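Subject: design request, 728 residues
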C-alpha cells in the first residue's frame, strides 16, 4: 500500500537508531524537513521524499507512535500565561514555512522578532527548537515544571528518594535529559530480540551517555565514568522504566508479534462463537505421539514415534475423524483424517477388532468449513476440497495455535491421560545425563497403538465431561450435559444442520493424492512396486511399453493400503482399479510409510552386501596381480630366441602343450606313468628291516594257504571231502 508523508509524523531510522519528527513537506511531496528528537541538534535537516518512502517500504524507516504527549492537565495559570506569551512572540515566524527551516532566512526572521520584542536571539532559538520537537503546538511552550518535582528550585539541588547508606553510590537529580537517555537506551538495547537484561541495558547506557574518553599512560583510549553524583543509579533507571513500561510493546519487540498474539494478548473470544451447529466448522491438526513403536515386519526394529491426526467439531468438541501413521505431518495424513471423518465409524472400528454401534460414533459427514494451520491445508491438494466437495478451507496465522484451542487441548488430553502407562513412552528425563532410554521399551506396533487411540477417542466422545464448556441459554434449559456426544446430538436436533454427505468414491477421488506411475513391460511401476489389472492386459499396455518404451499414466492412491491403486486409462478418461502383481503381494494391506521403511531397510542391507562384494573384488584383483607378477618374473628371459621364431612356432607349441595337458588330465594312465608313480610311492614308503620283511612274508603265505583251503571246501570246485563225490 502506498504511504504518504504527513507533517508531525515521527519515524525511526534503523541505521542511525534515531527518531525524527517531520516538520514540513512540499506540496508535490518532493522534499521536506525533519528534526532529530534525540540528538542535541537545534537545526532541522532536509530530506528527499522518494528516498524516505523507499526506506519505509524496505523497513529501514519505520513510522512510530509520537513519544511526546503534552496536555493541559494540572498546568498552573502561570505556566499557561508563559505559553501564551511565547506563542504570541514566535507565531509570526513559525508560519513562515519553509523559510523558517532555511538557515540564512531563519536567522533574519529571528533577528526581526528579537528586535521587535526586545528578546535575546539565542533564547528564541531554544524555544523554537522546543516547539518543533514537541509537536508544533502552542502547548509545546509550556514550562517543564512537571518533570522537576513541584517546580521548586530548591528541591532540584537534592536527589529525591531515600538517602544513600554509604558513600560511593551512584545517584543524581533526574532531569528531562536523563529521561531521554533512559528511553534511548531502552529502545536501543532492551527492546530488541537479544534477551538483554535491564542491568546490561543500564551498563550500556552509562557507556553511551555518562562517560568520557580518556587516555592511559600508554596513550590507549578508554571510557571513564563521570563523577558519582552525575550518574543515575540502577534503581532510578528501573524506576523510570517501570513507570513508563508498555507491556505490549515490550513483548512485541523482545519476543515478536507472533509470541505476543500467542501468549500475551488479551483473551476475549471463543473458538465456537457464532457457530450455527455441528459441522459448521471442523478443526484439523497433527501432533507427534510421545511413544516409540516397533515394526509389524520385524518386531525387533524400533520405527520411531507415530504422528496422530485428529478432526474435531468446534461446536460440540466431538472427535469426528482420526488417523495414526508414521509419516510426518503432510497432506497424506490430513487426507486420511478427513476421509475418516466422512466415513462409517462402525466399519472403521471393526477393522481394528472393536465393536461399536452407530450411536456411539455417529460422525460420517463433511463440514461447511475446515480450519487448519497453513501447513498441508495450504497445499494444492487441498483445492479439491473446495472445487469437488464445496468445503471452505480456513488457515490460522503462523504460530497461532491458540486459534485452534479446541484441538490443541485434545492433544494435551491424549498425551497426558492415554500414553503415560504404555511401553516406550518418552519421559522428560530421557535427554538428561544418566536418564533411561525409553526407546528400548517399545512393544506396540502401529496397529495396536491405533486401536488404543480409537478406544481413547470413544471414551472422550461418550464419557468425557468438559467442566470448562460454556453452555448457552438453550443448552441450560434443555439440561444437556457437557459431553461431546450429547452436545453433538443436541446440535443436530435443535440447531441448524451444517452436515453434508457425498458418495464414497467421489470423496476418495477428491482426497486421494494424485501422482504419475510408469507403465513398463513388467507392470505399472509406482513407488518401487508393480501393479496390473484386466484392462491393462486386454489393452496391451505392457506390450506397448516393451515395444515403444515406458510411458506415464495418472494414478490415485491411498497411502493406508498400497495393495490397490486407481489408474487413468491412457486411451480414455476411465478410472481402473489395479492390484499388486503376484510376486509383489508381500506389500498388500501395508501402509506407504511401512513399505518405504521396508524398502529402505533392504537398501541398507544391499549396501552392506555390496561393501563385502567390493572388498572381495579388491582382493581378487590383488591375487591376479600377484599371479601376473610371478608370470612376468618367470618369463623375464626368452633364452635369446628371436621374435620371428617365437611367433612362427606358435602352432607347434600349441600342439605340444595340448598333448602334455591331455596326458595330465587323462582318466587312464600308461605303464610309464604307473612305473613312475610306483617309484614315487616307494620313495615315500619307509625303509623295512630284514627281520620285519621275513615276518611279513610268512604272514602273507599263511593267509594265502587259508584262502586255498576255504576254496576247496566249496562244491563243484574239486575234492570237497564229502563221501560219494569225486573230482573228475
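Subject: RE: design request

Done. Sequence follows.
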Amino acid at each position: 500500500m502506498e504511504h504518504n508523508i504527513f507533517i508531525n509524523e515521527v519515524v525511526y531510522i534503523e541505521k542511525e537508531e534515531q527518531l525524527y519528527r517531520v516538520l514540513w513537506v512540499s506540496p508535490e511531496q518532493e522534499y521536506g524537513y525533519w528534526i532529530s528528537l534525540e540528538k542535541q541538534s537545534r537545526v532541522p535537516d532536509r530530506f528527499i521524499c522518494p528516498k524516505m518512502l523507499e526506506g519505509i517500504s524496505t523497513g529501514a524507516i519505520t513510522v512510530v507512535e509520537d513519544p511526546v504527549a503534552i496536555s493541559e492537565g494540572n498546568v498552573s495559570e502561570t505556566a499557561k500565561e508563559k505559553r501564551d506569551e511565547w506563542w504570541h512572540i514566535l507565531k509570526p515566524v513559525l508560519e513562515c514555512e519553509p523559510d523558517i527551516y532555511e538557515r540564512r532566512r531563519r536567522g533574519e526572521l529571528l533577528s526581526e522578532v528579537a528586535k521587535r520584542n526586545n528578546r535575546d536571539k539565542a533564547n528564541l532559538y531554544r524555544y523554537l527548537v522546543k516547539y518543533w520537537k514537541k509537536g508544533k503546538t502552542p502547548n509545546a511552550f509550556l514550562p517543564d515544571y512537571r518533570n522537576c518535582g513541584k517546580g521548586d528550585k530548591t528541591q532540584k539541588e537534592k536527589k529525591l528518594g531515600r538517602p544513600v547508606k554509604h558513600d560511593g553510590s551512584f545517584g543524581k537529580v533526574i532531569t528531562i535529559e536523563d529521561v531521554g537517555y533512559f528511553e534511548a537506551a531502552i529502545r536501543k538495547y532492551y527492546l530488541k530480540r537479544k534477551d538483554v537484561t535491564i542491568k546490561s541495558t543500564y551498563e550500556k547506557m552509562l557507556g553511551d551517555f555518562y562517560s568520557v574518553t580518556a587516555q592511559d599512560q600508554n596513550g590507549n583510549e578508554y571510557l571513564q565514568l563521570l563523577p558519582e553524583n552525575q550518574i543515575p543509579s540502577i534503581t532510578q533507571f528501573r524506576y523510570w522504566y517501570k513507570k513508563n513500561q508498555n507491556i505490549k510493546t515490550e513483548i512485541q519487540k523482545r519476543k515478536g508479534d507472533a509470541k505476543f498474539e500467542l501468549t500475551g494478548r488479551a483473551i476475549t473470544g471463543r473458538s465456537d462463537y457464532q457457530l450455527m451447529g455441528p459441522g459448521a466448522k471442523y478443526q484439523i491438526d497433527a501432533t507427534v505421539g510421545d511413544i516409540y513403536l516397533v515394526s509389524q515386519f520385524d518386531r525387533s526394529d524400533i520405527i520411531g514415534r507415530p504422528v496422530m491426526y485428529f478432526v474435531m467439531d468446534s461446536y460440540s468438541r466431538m472427535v469426528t475423524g482420526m488417523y495414526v501413521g508414521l509419516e510426518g505431518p503432510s497432506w497424506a495424513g490430513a487426507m486420511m483424517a478427513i476421509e475418516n471423518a466422512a466415513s462409517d465409524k462402525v466399519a472403521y472400528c471393526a477393522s481394528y477388532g472393536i465393536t461399536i454401534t452407530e450411536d456411539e460414533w455417529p460422525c460420517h459427514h463433511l463440514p461447511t468449513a475446515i480450519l487448519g494451520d497453513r501447513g498441508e491445508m495450504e497445499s494444492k491438494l487441498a483445492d479439491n476440497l473446495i472445487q469437488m466437495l464445496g468445503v471452505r478451507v480456513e488457515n490460522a496465522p503462523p504460530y497461532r495455535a491458540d486459534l485452534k484451542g479446541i484441538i490443541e487441548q485434545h492433544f494435551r488430553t491424549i498425551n497426558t491421560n492415554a500414553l503415560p502407562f504404555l511401553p516406550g513412552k518418552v519421559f522428560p528425563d530421557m535427554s538428561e545425563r544418566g536418564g533411561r532410554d525409553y526407546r528400548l521399551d517399545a512393544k506396540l506396533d502401529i496397529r495396536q497403538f491405533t486401536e488404543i487411540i480409537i478406544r481413547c477417542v470413544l471414551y472422550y466422545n461418550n464419557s468425557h465431561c468438559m467442566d470448562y464448556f460454556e453452555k448457552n441459554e438453550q443448552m441450560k434449559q434443555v439440561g444437556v450435559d457437557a459431553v461431546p456426544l450429547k452436545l453433538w446430538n443436541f446440535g443436530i436436533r435443535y440447531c441448524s444442520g451444517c452436515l453434508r454427505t457425498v458418495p464414497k468414491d467421489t470423496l476418495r477421488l477428491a482426497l486421494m493424492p494424485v501422482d504419475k506411475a510408469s507403465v513398463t513391460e513388467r507392470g505399472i511401476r509406482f513407488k518401487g512396486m508393480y501393479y496390473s489389472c484386466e484392462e491393462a492386459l486386454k489393452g496391451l499396455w505392457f506390450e506397448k511399453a516393451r515395444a515403444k518404451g515406458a510411458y506415464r499414466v495418472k494414478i490415485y492412491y491411498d497411502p493406508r493400503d498400497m495393495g490397490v491403486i486407481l489408474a487413468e486409462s491412457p486411451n480414455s478418461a476411465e478410472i481402473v482399479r489395479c492390484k499388486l502383481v503376484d510376486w509383489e503381494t508381500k506389500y498388500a494391506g501395508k501402509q506407504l510409510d511401512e513399505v518405504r521403511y521396508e524398502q529402505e531397510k533392504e537398501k541398507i542391507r544391499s549396501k552392506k552386501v555390496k561393501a563385502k562384494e567390493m572388498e572381495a573384488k579388491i582382493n581378487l584383483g590383488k591375487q591376479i596381480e600377484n599371479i601376473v607378477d610371478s608370470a612376468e618374473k618367470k618369463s623375464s628371459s626368452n633364452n635369446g630366441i628371436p621374435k620371428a621364431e617365437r611367433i612362427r612356432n606358435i602352432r607347434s607349441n600349441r600342439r605340444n602343450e595340448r598333448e602334455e595337458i591331455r596326458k595330465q588330465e587323462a582318466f587312464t594312465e600308461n605303464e610309464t606313468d604307473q612305473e613312475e608313480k610306483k617309484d614315487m610311492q616307494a620313495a615315500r614308503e619307509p625303509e623295512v628291516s630284514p627281520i620285519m620283511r621275513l615276518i611279513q612274508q610268512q604272514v602273507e603265505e599263511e593267509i594265502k594257504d587259508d584262502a586255498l583251503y576255504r576254496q576247496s571246501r566249496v562244491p563243484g570246485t574239486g575234492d570237497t571231502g564229502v563221501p560219494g563225490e569225486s573230482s573228475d
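Confidence is low (pLDDT under 50) at residues 149-156, 265-271, 399-403, 717-728.
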